[in-house]
Amino acid sequence: MKNTATFLKMKAEREPIAMMTAYDAPSAHFAQKAGMDIILVGDSAGMVVHGYDSTIPVTLEDMLLHTKAVRRGAPDVFVVTDLPFLTFHGDISKTMDRVATLMQEGGAQAVKIEGGGRVLPFIDQLTEAGVPVMAHLGLTPQSVGVLGGYKVQGKTEESASLLIKEAKQVEENGAFALVLECVPKQLAEHIASLLTIPVIGIGAGKQVDGQVLVFHDAVGYTTGFVPKFAKQYAQVGETITQALEAYVEEVKSGAFPSEEHTFSMETETLQKVYG
Ligand code: KIV
Ligand code: NA
Q1: b/e per residue, 239-255, with b = 16+ CB within 10 A?
Q2: Prediction ipTM score
Q3: For 210-254, what is each residue's pLDDT tens digit?
Q4: Could you read off the pLDDT of 121-139 as tens digits, one per residue?
Q5: Pair (191, 248) in one structural domain
Q6: Which of 75, 78, 88 is nearest to 43 (CA)?
Q7: Is the same domain home to 253 and 179?
Q8: Which of 50, 150, 181, 225 to mutate for ligand 1's pocket (most ligand atoms within 8 Å of CB)?
Q9: Does residue 117 sit in the same domain as residue 252?
Q10: Structural domain for 262, as ranges
Q11: Model-level pTM greater than 0.90?
């Protein structure tokens, strides 16, 4: 299994890191089979799996369940689990307990935490305690209420300077990697060049050290909005719809099940049963 040292080395050797979310055993299985470097059990599960319109309702229990399933599906891939909304503020010892749950029960190798500023002591203390922490700056969806929507971040001089400062700070506080979401490519490139730890972009251009996408976006398994930065490598939703339509049609017409999908038994045995 790759680890935090592997990811540092990949950055140093300019080998891009491929990361994608997964939430269940089959998606994790296919990610492992495809050679994914990192699987993120993202709290985007709230939106793409559970049908919420934000990540705010996601709980630690949700994340634990998804992490366990992902672990079983991809036993050999480095798994990072998101700490969900309001689970890494306030009392650090409570956060420690939550992280212990996700790592010891769930099987995650690391956790991801949104934000800089007041979150920095949490990154520092978790790292000190032996927990690899992935930071997340730029568009931080758990702060959608404060940010006022899902928008590109760091486009003004002030916000760009703050983002650069916070990126350096998460590294100084021990983060082993940084996710940069929805920032102009020029700024993302600059930040990646300033840091030793890998910067993994989503909507941050290609001049960073890796990319992450949400599984459902990448395979076209979505029902609603697909962000501009999400490339769809397949149209699984269309394939599924066609399959389900064919099933409905065959059930109605009686074409399914045919002999091929049916069990049978000896007539002799049946006669004995019926007497
Ligand atoms: O939850 C998630 O999927 C994420 C990625 C967008 C980085 O945090
Ligand atoms: Na997330």
Answers
A1: eeeeeeeeeeeeeeeee
A2: 0.99
A3: 999 999 999 999 987 889 999 999 999 999 999 999 999 999 999
A4: 999 999 999 999 999 999 9
A5: no
A6: 88
A7: no
A8: 181
A9: no
A10: 239-274
A11: yes
